Amino acid sequence: MNQKKTGILAILGASSMWAVEPILAKLAYEDADFLETSAVRAIFVTLVAILYILLRGRRNLKITGRQFSYLVYLALAGTIFGDLLYFYALTRIPVLNAVLIGHMQPIFIVLTGFFFLKEDKLTKFDYAGIGIMIIAGVLVTTKTLENFSAARFGTIEDVYVLLATVAWATTTIVMRKYLRELDAGVVTFYRYLVASAVFIAYFSLHSSLAVSNIYQILVGIVVGVGTILYYEGLKRIKAAQVCALELSTPFFATLLGFLILREGATLIQIAGLGLLFAGICLLSKKEEAYF
């Protein structure tokens, strides 16, 4: 199988994991808080990464000091800051809202890449896609035409997910620019090892850390698999293609949210989902750059 096909399958696999993650998190919240769930999740992601490395026969975890500094950034910005905001927001907003807003990442990846990855130039398709995705985000968070006309553009928790999305986008840029040569399992291992150390230090000072339910473990396993697949895909196909393929996540999440959590979607949110699809398709197109 060639590199492109492998990358496509990896991102589709990661997308299915991202769709399952918030469902399991919601179930975990029935008898555990978001902070404890995040800590258990980080620890089990680290264990999944170790298992992946061992299964591939790559026991060398050696990295440079410079690479470690970037991995610490991934841990702090992506896991401690971004994931915690996302998990907290999930306690208060529907899965559909969280997943759709979270998949506005391409906007910030393109904009951040404009400044830090000079090879990623903005095209007219990029601009059109960004504009459409902003409209899609507004439709998703307002939910109804009444809210839209009254200028009720979502909740503070929607803003939290948006901030998490920005943080995740910056980690994608760092990964592409500085860590692409590292094994996906090694990147995942160090990112969540650092995050686990932060969580363990916090709980050792404030309270005891314990596994309250099986869903916390399952979240860790799912995220571990998804993160490894995402990094494997990111190494093999272009970022625009990754963004387009990740669109499958909201579809999976919408279906699972309805079947398992009985969360419905309004017509305006469905319209937002359609616009999100159109926006990411535009972002995936290639044409002569304007800048």
Structure commentary:
By secondary structure, the chain is mainly alpha-helical. It has one domain. Helix content is 78%, strand content 0%. It is built from 13 helices and no strands. The chain is globular. The model has no long low-confidence stretch (mean pLDDT 80).
Instruction: Output the structural class.
Output: mainly alpha
Number of strand elements: 0
Count every helix, treating DSSP H or I runs of 4 or more residues as helices. Answer: 13
Distance from first to last alpha carbon = 36 Å
Instruction: Assign an overall shape.
Output: globular
Fraction of residues in β-strands:
under 5%
Low-confidence runs (pLDDT<50, min 5 residues)? none
Number of structural units classed as domains:
1
Largest sheet: none
The radius of gyration computed from the alpha-carbon positions, rounded to a whole number of angstroms, is: 19 Å
Helical proportion? over 70%
On the 0 to 100 scale, the average pLDDT is: 80
- Listing every helix as H and every strand as E from the N terminus to the C terminus, the arrangement reads HHHHHHHHHHHHH
